[in-house]
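Holo prediction — WTA.
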Amino acid sequence: MSNYHIKNLEEYFQVYRKSVREPENFWEEIAEEHFVWREKWNKVLEWDFKKPEIKWFEGAKFNITENCLDRFLPMRKDKTAILFEPNDPEVEAEHITYSQLHERVCRMANVLIEGGIEKGDRVCIYLPMIPELAISVLACARIGAIHSVVFAGFSSSALAARINDCDAQCVITSDGSFRGDKVIDLKGIVDQALQECTGVKTVYVVERTGNKIEMENGRDKWLQPLLDEAYADCDAVVMDAEDPLFILYTSGSTGKPKGMVHSCAGYMVYAAYTFKNIFQYKEGDIYWCTADIGWITGHSYIVYGPLLNGATTVMFEGVPSYPDYDRFWQVVEKHKVNQFYTAPTAIRALAKEKLEYVEKYDLTSLKVLGTVGEPINEEAWHWYNNNVGKGKSPIVDTWWQTETGGIMISPIPYVTPTTPTYATLPFIGVQPALMDDEGNEIKGNQVSGKLCIKFPWPSMARTIWGDHERFRNTYFDVFENKYFTGDGALRDGVGYYRITGRVDDVIIVSGHNLGTAPIEDSINEHPAVAESAVVGFPHEIKGNALYGFVILKETGESRDRENLRKEINLQIAEQIGPIAKLQKIQFVPGLPKTRSGKIMRRILRKIASNDAENLGDISTLLNPEIVEDIKAEVL
Ligand code: WTA
């Protein structure tokens, strides 16, 4: 039996037990047998959750791109590594083989070197879902530059904040992006962002849409001519196990996004191992994850996880609704996709459309279906299972986070059972714990609490860029000696986990994490606004939508309410991005507050969800009378 590929339930239990009883031996074996190293580690694991400091495979030397590319050249050079499906279905898909990908990554790496980028430098990547995005990520990894991919739906202010936070000196972008029938001027957004970013010396521009754009002399460079001239091979820079591989920003409950730092070796081992097992990838399979590489899902399960296993990974530029709502299923049939990984919000949106859109296509190639990003509701789960999987493809409901780097709780298809709305069992090496509010671990089954992890796993984030204290406060100070996820969960009678949602001020809208604080900051900047509070409420397709309670200044009182709503949303779209726009905005005379002045979001959440019957005891509020006023005008 190989511990690398788990094939049945007995093996799962056996391997899980080993991973918990002898974690170091277990991970050492996986690392030794399935990756190429220039030098082996001195110690498998060193950890201290108080500091916190976590080190895996210290002393090891290697490069992750040699594990993604070079080692496959002898056997798989003509195998498709990336299968690129463009936005426009009339345009032919591009099959990029392992040897072509190797060459393109090397050329890109040489361009970066030529541009003065060195090991440890930060490179911001702001690109649509085109091959250059994956190639840029890998090129950074090749030369040891730290990539910071920013989702190309973020606004110029959000982009500027992320560039400045990590002092990126170089940005890779494109002249524009195609999304459905829209063309988006990405370069214009970058230009605007860079007015606030003095540290950026170079902007590399991929030609994608042919849009007319401004090129700033000395700073902006078209990428293709440089790639054409660059040498087609590039030695990989030898990295230490704990050197940072990338930064990826995620929302927190205060205004500033958190730049989660992932390091090289542990991330590689865990991304590869989870991919192999959770998708049961077999040689020759075509795997498709519909996420964007701007999110952690795309990092771990479009780029690194699949390539580390020599897989074929589909990269899709478009959207599920263009040219019509059958686009996903058309692509599944066309490329005979075997594993399909998407978000509950996409499933809910497609489930609202005619069934013919799904039924028209031959989906028999599918073997595994997956979901990620938010809890999947029962109805969506059954729709997915019945209509896409035809009851034959197990659904892996994968729970994890930007911070965890890889999937943490999930069924293993054909190995462990699935249950609608349950992420089920911890993955190999993962030791979850449910905690009560007093900080005690809740043992046994049929219980619920706050979800923590009590032992390190290889791909956990190591710090927040530039703010280790925030890393400690947010994740390690809440419960002693445990990593706190920010999620609530229940464990049922047989020990399966069901994630019930965030227990902090992060709201998940269409699978995107949004902190309430930055949105409130943005609303409060409007000249007519005095104060605001944002909460989530259930939404049929998005999972949650945002509800804003806004107190106006006296000067704002005379303004037209509809115009104000538009202006507030425009401001949010500009400062954060359209994904953070409010679905509903209610103007209120005040907000319910505790005596210490903290907004009681719990009460607002109930009001926004039309569940205000049972608000519990509100007599401890500073201003209990305000609750009735707000309820009376709820939208
Ligand atoms: C939520 C995405 C329920 C959760 C990989 C988590 C989920 C946050 C699931 C992380 C799931 C993710 N079931 N909730 N299967 N997967 N979440 O950082 O609240 O974008 O903390 O990482 O999404 O979102 P992030």
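READOUT: The chain has a mean pLDDT of 95.
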